[in-house]
Amino acid sequence: MKNQVRAIAALCLGAAMLLGTCVTGNAAASKDKPIVMKFGHVMSTDNSWHKGCMKFAEIVREKTGGRIKVQVFPNSQLGDERDMAEGCQMGTIDMVIIGGIMGNFYEPIQLFEIPYFFKDINHVRKVIYVPLGEEIKADIYKQSGLVSLEFWERCPRVLSSNKPVLSVEDVKGLKLRTPEIPATVAAWKAIGANPTPMPWAEVYTALQQKTIDAQENPLATIASAKVEEVQSHIALTNHVFGTPQHIMSGGTWERLSAEDKAVIKEAAKEAREYQNAIAWEEDAATKEVFVKKGVIFTEPDLSGFQERSQSIHGEFAARYGKELYDKVQKAAE
Length: 333
Fold this sequence. Notes:
Elements (H helix, E strand, L loop, with lengths): L1 H17 L16 E6 L7 H16 L4 E6 L7 H10 L4 E4 L22 H8 L2 H14 L1 E6 L6 E4 L13 E4 L3 H10 L2 E4 L5 H6 L5 E4 L1 H6 L8 E3 L9 E5 H6 L2 H35 L3 E3 L4 H8 L2 H8 L1 H10 L2
Parallel strand pairs: 1-2, 1-3, 6-7, 6-8, 9-11
Antiparallel strand pairs: 3-10, 4-10, 5-8, 5-9
């Protein structure tokens, strides 16, 4: 039933957008024809994702003299991440920034969402900005029809709750919102929590109404939804260093001229570098703001989290690709 609802929603979204002004699906190879692209994401306008998307639109406009216009839609205006990725597959949306939900379209990337899969951000960079990252992008296109233009950096995910978390025992039975990612859900079950997947747009209300007890995300994402208004504590678990991706519809990509493809790739790289820089600045600034608002930060003993999470690594390595798993782990050496 859930899949049927998603399919109906995707069809409705497609019909609505085709009736609008979007020229998705009409992007021609001609370098003279004006093109309008729709670019969606789930974050607020003060988040680094939005700033990165706006920088991309600005660069594309400048490089094409305004011939290609990128319209940015924040705050889940075009749907949640999965809806928008499906829209890219259908050709009703041109681009999206997508986080761990990418695993629903390219299963091996779910390995990246396993808590403590990456040691730190330097380990991440040794994977996504080298030939291995390009191999992954090519495989994503082959398997899903989605073009991964760039990997973005995301500051580590931390845990917010209404009680202090000092060790793994403090999350036992905690009803924790997670993304709809099997590896994430399995890991938090192994850690001892009660993971509850739900769309990000529903999290604030769920916390407010105590439908869930906690959630886990980077600090900037927590701030974007004002979660600090309904959560008093943040534990610096630093359990996932995410790699959101700037995704483009394969159909839109293939209809572009070679010159326009080059512009898009150049702009995507410049926007990635811009977003990455401000993401880390944003993380530090957000922590200072939270402290001033009275949020209590804890630095829990991570050994128990790491040990329990490790128990599911083998299962998902076997499911999604032991070769990729081993390559990523070797990159940390």
